[in-house]
Design a protein that fits this description.
Blueprint lengths: L3 E2 H8 L3 H10 L6 E3 L2 E4 L1 H16 L4 H20 L7 H12 L3 H12 L1 H25 L1
Antiparallel strand pairs: 1-3, 2-3
Helix pairs in contact: 3-4, 4-6
């Protein structure tokens, strides 16, 4: 496990250190290790910080909006945004939220978990493409 200090992470994210400390207090999902009164961030913490930065600074979410994202989608989603694996465009997020709202809660949770995992996303995409190709082939045979 590679640990990085707050100065290195602040430089990497182009943010002041006090912003990272503020986010740590605001969002309980950030829990850097502490040794000798210093903060050390794990890779998972850095992914969350990158996701928080993307959602707040690049996509314009408010702190309340980001709290809702953590509450409704969890840190797995925010980490995936930080890794660039999930579209974080506001319109994409609204469309996804509207579609999710129509699903039963258990299906919502399952879908969110699946979307946060790149391997699962690829498997689902491959499955959908396979179904599309079979449907196109069947249509071509009948035409």
């Amino acid at each position: 496990m590679r640990l990085q200090g707050i100065a290195a992470i602040a430089e990497q994210l182009d943010l002041p250190q006090h912003v990272l400390r503020f986010w740590e207090k605001e969002f309980g999902h950030l829990r850097p290790m502490r040794r000798n009164r210093r903060r050390y961030y794990r890779a998972e913490d850095v992914e969350i910080l990158q996701g928080v930065r993307t959602l707040l600074h690049d996509r314009g979410l408010t702190l309340d909006g980001l709290r809702r994202v953590f509450q409704e989608r969890g840190p797995t989603f925010v980490r995936a945004v930080g890794r660039g694996e999930i579209a974080s465009d506001p319109l994409d997020m609204v469309a996804m939220g509207l579609a999710l709202a129509q699903l039963p809660p258990d299906r919502q949770h399952a879908l969110i978990e699946a979307l946060a995992d790149p391997a699962t996303c690829r498997a689902l995409a491959d499955q959908c493409l396979g179904q599309t190709h079979r449907a196109e082939a069947a249509h071509a045979r009948s035409a």
